[in-house]
Structure formats: C-alpha cells, structure tokens
Specification:
Number of domains: 1
Order of helices and strands: HEEEEEEEE
Number of helices: 1
CATH topology: Immunoglobulin-like
Mean pLDDT: 77
Distance between the termini: 48 Å
Strand content: 35-45%
Low-confidence stretches: 14-25
Largest sheet: 4 strands, mixed
Strand order of the largest sheet: 4-1-7-8
Radius of gyration: 22 Å
CATH class: Mainly Beta
Helix content: 10-25%
C-alpha cells in the first residue's frame, strides 16, 4: 500500500515537472501597457487606443489597459472618443501615431499625456 502511494506521488511529481518546463518556454509575444492613471490629461473624455489603425481599447481617467501583441513595429494612435460628457465630440485632430517596437518577452509601459501636438505616449517605469 505504501509503495503504491509513493509511486503515485512520484508519478504526479514527474507530470508537474513537464508542465513547468513547457510554461518556461520562449515567449512569442510582448506586452504593451498603456496607462491613464496620472491626471496629465485634464478631461473626463474617453480616449481611444488605435493599434495599426484598429480600435483596440478605451481608457477613462485612472485606468490602464494591456495588450499581448506579436513582436514587431506598432503604430499606436490616441484620440478622444465621442461620449455623453459635454465637449467630448472630436473636432479636427492631429492624426500622428507613436511608432513603437515591441520585442518578444518584453513588457513596455507608457502613460498618456498631452503636448503641443495633442495626445501622446510617454515611456513609464514598470513600478515593480
């Protein structure tokens, strides 16, 4: 009986090693985090995040979002989205994009800010 129990525990230990080995394999994606946690954008309007000209996410004040993306070059564009709050209807906007390069296994964090050309991304520390 003891022998069977030890054999079962040994077998479970071997299966546990296989799952750890497969989880530690190479990552084939990168993580992009975009944060609006700081109050650098003085509006309550929702901000749309466009990745390669596709709406990929929305941010309200004090929010952040993350994307698991394949490595390579990205064009990230931010713009105000129309909403229920007054003054959130977009007018003529600067259509410039932030060009980012994401590598496999890399975690990149950016925060939303406003400069003379409109909404932009500023590199931020991960904080952990």
């Amino acid at each position: 009986m003891r022998r069977a129990a030890f054999g079962l525990f040994g077998l479970l230990g071997i299966f546990g090693m296989f799952t750890q080995a497969s989880a530690a394999g190479p990552a084939d994606y990168g993580i992009l985090i975009i944060s609006r946690e700081r109050l650098e954008v003085a509006t309550s309007c929702e901000i749309g995040i466009y990745i390669n000209d596709q709406l990929a996410g929305r941010l309200f004040q004090e929010q952040s979002t993350s994307f698991n993306l394949p490595p390579g070059n990205l064009d990230v564009r931010l713009r105000y989205l129309p909403g229920q709050a007054p003054g959130c209807q977009p007018g003529i906007e600067n259509q410039r994009s932030n060009h980012l390069r994401l590598q496999a296994g890399q975690i990149s964090k950016y925060r939303v800010a406003v400069d003379q050309n409109g909404l932009t991304l500023i590199r931020a520390g991960l904080g952990y």
